[in-house]
């Protein structure tokens, strides 16, 4: 039976503008009549002529509304001439798994259903993001096009009668207006696990994790935070690497993440931090809802900042078979990320790039072979094996480094600092502030720090003095396609390399979140307490930005 395509009249919704990482709104916004349909149609239209006959990947982090959205996408894609969809079973695919699948199947792209680390459930957030054929998040020009289309949309296409059961793995072929349309529901983890096995030496890691090569099993606590990584974690750490059942927790993906805020940091992964602090663990790790972020802690909850994590992995890259085989190209970090990796790059004679916040800015450099490892302070670490950050990959990299060095995480860090010096780093988040005063604060601060007399100014607090060397609103020209991204965050760089960075988050779904990043380098004094070492610079940042005055906040909501 041939299924027919229906053209459904619709009207534009305001505000369908993708942020740092796709469109994120409350579930209630997405479930308004035609809201999701409009946005999906615009994503497909933004692909132009390439869409007809293409293959797309569809999946998400299992949060509330994922399954319904996936089924809707199947019906809209069928109506728009897509030839084949690869859909994760029950709509489940981690963000790194989508990226890997796009690349392995030479797909035109993928639609990722996630609001990443934002809470889920009917009262919370949902999100839709498009990744292009390199497997990476769509670049600015592409998402701007989606937005433009969303402001003028008049209708969308739908195959209303297409019945699909995405709970069972298998291939279904439909006849849509005389043309075949294929939906392949795939095992959510198989391709990704195979990919990890190609990158890391699983035999060696298994001996290390199970204790065969050391005489003592590695004690780990891997916390999937009820997000999408649960299924991946069980297969990799339990079945392939032989860890004990107790090594993994919260491994059932839940639509509301069991009420957890699935963001792997010291505040929201408190359960992990407390458990590892009290127990006898060698490594603790957590991931966010869609599995691209990671947090690593060592014994007694010794915290590894994402900036340090990136630098350490960079230093030991050659312990990982993938890099032995493919070589080590350049490194990169986002602008607010502390510059620890720059020092490793310098020592190893590698290019190091500083890009705006957002994983999409790494893609071009990877595609032309100039970049193999990158990371962000926002708990993202990854390599050119895909075009997304990859939480599980980061843990496997860390376990590889532990196996290679035979050292504890704390000792690995202390040794690293003794060689390179230490970038003390912290981030203060002020969540859900009113937008207007925040915009005003940013505008005022920009005006003040870009005034001619600002450079050279001295600031002192608690006996420490800093002299301004440079201050601007960060802008970036992509070295490959020469596209320019402006207004990517206010930064003040001091004489000794210490930095204050301030920007508004691009991933929230309402109001404004102010992020204040403090980065201070010490060559010798590497064993201090970060909060103490950074206090003077934090006070100076609050003074320059007048943050308490504009936001009415005297303390951050989250400190990482
Ligand atoms: C997402 C992106 C990251 C980015 C982060 C920043 O996780 O994938 O690449 O660093 O958002 O979020 P923000 O809220 O600071 O804009
Ligand atoms: Zn994420």
TrEMBL record:
Transmembrane segments: none
Cofactor: Mg(2+)
Keywords: Carbohydrate metabolism, Glucose metabolism, Isomerase, Magnesium, Metal-binding, Phosphoprotein
Enzyme class: isomerase
Catalytic activity annotation: alpha-D-glucose 1,6-bisphosphate + L-seryl-[protein] = O-phospho-L-seryl-[protein] + alpha-D-glucose 6-phosphate; O-phospho-L-seryl-[protein] + alpha-D-glucose 1-phosphate = alpha-D-glucose 1,6-bisphosphate + L-seryl-[protein]; alpha-D-glucose 1-phosphate = alpha-D-glucose 6-phosphate
GO BP annotations, alphabetical order: glucose metabolic process
EC number: 5.4.2.2
An example Gene Ontology CC term for this record: cytosol
SUPFAM superfamilies, alphabetized: Phosphoglucomutase, C-terminal domain, Phosphoglucomutase, first 3 domains
Residue ranges occupied by any Alpha-D-phosphohexomutase alpha/beta/alpha domain in the UniProt entry: 16-155, 191-297, 308-420
Molecular function terms from GO: magnesium ion binding; phosphoglucomutase activity
Family: Belongs to the phosphohexose mutase family.
UniProt-listed NCBIfam families: PRK07564.1-1
Protein name, entry field: phosphoglucomutase (alpha-D-glucose-1,6-bisphosphate-dependent)
Protein source organism: Drosophila albomicans (Fruit fly)
